[in-house]
Amino acid sequence: MMKFDITSQRFWRYGKVLLLTCMLVLAGNCQAEGKGIMIIANPSVSEVVVSARDMRLIYFGKMKKWQNGTRVKPAQIKSGALPEIFSLEYMKKPYRKYKLYWRRVIAAGTGIPPRSFASQKLMLEYVRNTKGAIGYVDNLTDKNGIVVLQVID
Amino acid sequence: MVSRYFSISLYLLILSGTTNLYGVEIDEIQISGFLSQGYLESTENDYFEGTKKGSWNFSEVGLNFIVPLDDNLYFGMQFFSHRLATEVESTPTIDWAFFDYSRESWLGFRVGKLKLPFGLYNKQREVDSLRTSVLLPQTVYTEGLRDFMVAIQGFELYGNLDLEKAGYVDYEVFIGSRVVDSSSGYLENSMGLMRLEFLDQGLNLDVFLDLAGVTLSDAVINIRHLEGFGFQWSPMPDLRLGYTRFQATIGFDLKGFTGSKIKMPEMSVGSVEYDKNKLTLVYEYFILRSGVAAEFTSLTSFETEGWYAGASWQFNNSLSASFSYGENFPLGGENRAEYFTSKGLPDYLAWQKEATYSVAYQLTEVSMIKVEVKNINGAGLSNPFVIDFVPVQNWRLYSIKASIAF
Fold it and tell me: Dihedrals φ, ψ of A41, to 5°?
């Protein structure tokens, strides 16, 4: 029977491998700043971590409140590479189909789409000034009045 | 004239270039609209009235807005005007208009004029640019039943239930009423069936109506109340399963013709859609159980059923193509052919089978052009109850349509 000896070299060798694996798994699951996209929110948002599933529900208009009861107010960028990447990464759909989804909802009047902005600067301003707002950027130099959310799978 | 001003205003709004991602956003107010013009030409039979000769009477104009009133409440309204197989330009009507109140995702409340959740696409059926095909598959989204199944004045409870690993469900429970006027295809079909029942008794309905001093334009179908429920379940991101069922209590008011009635119809529709990357697959099936009775005749129950299966493929950001095949049996099942043959009419009035090929090309972010060919077998949807006209069994419908949406 193998002894559990913390002074042995084998323990530390396996321990390092195990630790490295855990770090890699955690890094893979935390996407706040992964894949070039940062998920940002107004400081009124109580969550610091959101699930990828919640992101999907929020941007499809199916999650309306944060845990503290604040209304969820999603924001998005109108065009360019960033919304394309965001849509594939979090909505699991090409941006064209994501837009089509919202056009259908609007045609039936059964929901209000995320506010859309021409630039990241305008979106940042909206998120900074709007209670419950959430958005995304690929570059954040001024974190004042903004919280960065971690997204886990 | 009102419709023309409505179209011009909308066109100018689009040209003004103020449109946003989903239309025009003025602060939190969302405004969007659409405008389309098409051409229809059928061989042998009229698909809609006048299409055999070719018809430009195929247009739609819509403008909607959504105004958030507070965090939990908004008001939305859509004006809509359309022309299908009629020379008359329709004046804009309110397609939907309601207040929506929801504090939680799982429970919300809407009151006003509401679109019915018939199938996956009924709520957006007016917006041409949302699909590759020119017409929604008519074997399920039959224009003749449009007035009956489009909208009600009433209220509904709705919500989204998070089923964790089993995905989520959107549900609706609704009740309301509606008045359908004499131009309704549903009324025409019901009267057509009544006409055949009169013939069985050796009577002529039209002579009877003349003697009674009434015309069909006096007729009104009053949907006193219509109630039902619907849900769409998404067990995974690319899959949607839907089911809707509703029933109605109907009053049939035809001055001087008090013995006539329409049995309470029940309608169910089931849908499956798989939408992954460039491919969309869809299957929908509906059944309508109804009945009609006139003076001197017993109640005749009938079932209308239809289905279609379709696939569409997005080649790139501009070009898409679709194919669908569907069947509709206005009196239920192919075996009802004997209903027509027993009256000396051809059996193919008992069905309509359509193979539809469509191509759509997105010209710009807001404009699109489409062409479509339907190969048709049978004439069940071309008003099979007009007994002085015998349609041809195999025929085609060609259509082309340009649309702008913002």
Answer: -150, 165
